[in-house]
Amino acid sequence: MEAARRGDRDAFNELVRATYRAIYALAYRLTGNRDDAADVVQDAYVRAYRAIRRFRGDSSFSTWMYRITSNCASTHLSRRTRQRTEELSDDVPIVDLRPEQDPSLRAEAAVLRHHIDRAIRALPERLRQVVVLRDLHDLSHSEIAAELGITTSAAKVRLHRARQRLRTVLQRTAEFGADQADQAALPDPDNKTRRPRDQ
Amino acid sequence: MINDATRPFDHRPPAEAPPTLVWKVMARLDQYDRRRQLVRRFLAATTLAVITVLFRRRVRR
Q: What is the pTM of this model?
């Protein structure tokens, strides 16, 4: 890692060989397409190579790469959405009936995504980490435990609590609106009741 | 026996990285290194040219 940070290309190649499978799996899950995933992986490694000197080592290299890959995937997907063109054949109805193109469904999905983003951001850091690593980066419980330096059971407990909290916040959002839900998200009773072995 | 080299690409689980990907990544990094090298050389040459011009002007005065 140190050698790669100093600009040693061979050391960086080793890091690529060690991590590209997991990075590709994440890119594939984020893009849902093999070609896009391969493009995202290449972009992510070039970005990482450019920024490796600024990598402080607060997290592991793979966690850092996951973050870069998520950013690359979102850039890639937004670029692709802007550039997307499809040819119309004669038997295609003029009105696009596909559910993913339905403006009202897309608006609903955007609102839901916004609420989920908000609810995740409102989670305490230690709960947010496990949700992001599990549900976005698709890491296993043991991988999350290793990444955060906690036990596997602690990772499971945190994930359970985080999902419970998200469920409560999202239910409140559906019933009373976002402001009430924020009030539900603010207090962190887990911090008071947290047992030492859950650290 | 099917191994990484003989298994057809389409039979892979979709989330499994194709073995050629690592070479594509290396090629992109090589390309980035080459471009960076070219930019550095260009900047060095431009700087040298500017310094030379300024120096000659000064000498002529």
A: 0.53
